[in-house]
Amino acid sequence: MWPGHIGADRGYGGAGIRGVGATITPTSVTGPLLAALPLLVVPLLLRWLLGPSRTVRLLIGGACVVAVARLLWFDPLLDRRCVDGCTPSPLALLASSSSESVLRVAEALVPVLCALVGVVIARRFPVPVRSACAGLLVASGMRAAAICSTPSSALKLSWNILALVASAAAVVFAVGVAGWPSVRRLRARLAVARLVRRLSGARDIDDVSAAVARALADPTAEVRYRSPTGWVDARGADVRAPGPEAVEVRRGGGVIAAIVTPRTSGRAPTAVRLGPTLELALANEQLRALALARVQQLRLSRARIVAAGDAARRGLEQNLHDGAQQRLVALTFELRRARARAEGVRAVELDAAIAIATAALEELREIAHGIFPATLTEAGLSAALHELAGASVHAVSVVHIDDERLPADVAIAAYCMVAEVIEHSPAAIDVRRRDGDTLVVRLTVPGRPPTDSTSDAADRVGALGGTILTTRGENGTEIQGVLPCAL
Amino acid sequence: MRVVIADDTMLMREGLARLLADAGVDVVESVGDVEGLNRAVAFKSPDVAIVDIRMPPTFTDEGLVAARLIRATQPGTAVLVLSQHLVPEFALRLLEDQQAGCGYLLKERVGDMAVLVDALRRLVAGETVVDPSIVTALFARRRRDRPMGMLTPREREVLALVTEGRSNLAIAERLSITQRTVEAHVTQVFDKLGLPEDPDTNRRVLASLTFLQSGA
Fold this sequence. Notes:
The structure holds 2 protein chains of 2 kinds. By secondary structure, chain A is an alpha+beta fold. Chain A has helices at 3-9, 15-24, 27-50, 54-73, 80-86, 100-122, 127-148, 153-200, 205-215, 268-341, 344-371, 374-379, 381-391, 408-424, 456-463, and strands spanning 222-227, 230-232, 238-239, 247-251, 254-260, 396-401, 427-434, 438-445, 467-473, 476-484. In chain A, strands 3-2-1-5-4 form a 5-stranded antiparallel beta sheet. The radius of gyration of chain A is 46 Å and the shape is rod-shaped. In chain A, 37% of the residues are buried. By secondary structure, chain B is of the alpha/beta class. Chain B has a 6-stranded parallel beta sheet with strand order 2-1-3-4-5-6, sandwiched between helices. In chain B, strand 3, helix 3 (62-73) and strand 4 (78-83) form a beta-alpha-beta unit. At the A-B interface, helix 10, helix 11, helix 12, helix 13 and strand 6 of A face helix 1, helix 4, helix 6 and helix 9 of B.
């Protein structure tokens, strides 16, 4: 099988021809070279001629398998004829001792030079080709050492074995290196297929991130999305910009997302291969994340507007309380003092003045209360709602009100919700704290709900991230406000 | 009688002091915050401390907290809490541990010399003084929990006739009012009794049952 042996053993031609044949086709070089040939040359040629089609890839794969199998199957050391015929130096075939040294050197140098040329040429070729050439260079050096060493057959044989093992290792390595990208591509493709299956079943925000993490076999992997102002997570919350180890997912020329794998940045290449397939899913997620971020921003800005309005109204109420109201009270004191000393017509006049001042005070008190219900901040939601219920023109019953201190904005929202409803309709009020961080305001009214989603209360509840749900039931309409109120 | 005044506005302190002087009451000290109040009460041992409910720093219920503290630590000093507007909850909180020697009045109410002198005298005697409007509000709250109490006499009359099984027309003839007025009364009764419009129930029957159950 090995041309070198054929030339040396079968004795085609004369001794000189056989010697030259053995020299230019040393066993250690030709065998692996031939084994590697389909692997290194045929694929490159096919690829160059036909382009990277599926058939070409299949052919390359097939060639690789055949080459490796042939290399592993055929062992020249077990070929008795080879051991018999190869062990004596081919130079011994030449009787002439004068040319022996020249031929010895030539035989030792030819494969080394061939391999060197191969390495030089291969510098322009991919890593697997260069690796194989380097392996062959080492093998040729060993073969040369075998030739040049003393004609002790045992030593020669061990050098030959080493050369064979080295060249075989070089070829196996080359095959491995050449084949590895394909294996990885295959793995990535399978991962993508699994990912797509999972993504199509994803229902929740977390599912996409989880699917990506599973596809990368890295539970710490997370996806961040590009927003106009920075980066957000799947829920739209602001996050840090991803570091340089993160894999950017691009679409339409811009970065839409980044896959961050804190544990191992080495997994990034897999993520890169996932990228194109992920693009669509992640672009989708980016839109959702941006929408959520926008909603969050709007909610915060709405909360700020509401808070600013409340602060202004509270300030106004405080000014009325500390200014005009106090002065009016002081005025009634003075009028009453004067009245105590007055008699006759003057007394009647002062009584009239006192009545006017008292009425003004009463009116001012109502105005101040309308601007901002001071009871709410002074005595809490329970007191304020009882007061509200008592002042309502409709029949309002208080079923239950948890008497707890609440954040000011939550208390005001709940108050406004109740105020709006009982302004138009009789109602039963039920206000309870649930799980410590939620306030549930339940209003049961007969007939149709008197409030709508554009009301001040709806704005306030919305600004807190709460909801108002209206359901018609057996006992009229139930309006339920759920307000988050983490203290 | 010796009195200490605590109010964060000077105008009020002075007005009240003049009023008290006219009434023959001895104002031993006027202070603008809780700290000054506690000090004055401790050193001067007045008969009554007149305290504004809204004082610094938060201007919510500082006066109330101070009043409860004084009642707990200085048995010889009665407390009269004043406010621009009345909150029934505050009255309940003030009277919850100790009722003797505690008062809660609308600020302008004490302008009336007779009311002021009477309140101070009763407080010193160990009685409780609560603004009449608070009493009204608390009673209204109790009434709210019993729906029958919310009906006007006319509405009760109409409901009684409904319970007898009479139609709106019969009730109108009986009471010499228009049928439309009867309808309005009946609707009002339904609202007050918390009976919503509902195709599955007969509200007249339910209202009658409520009327009978109330034992009226």
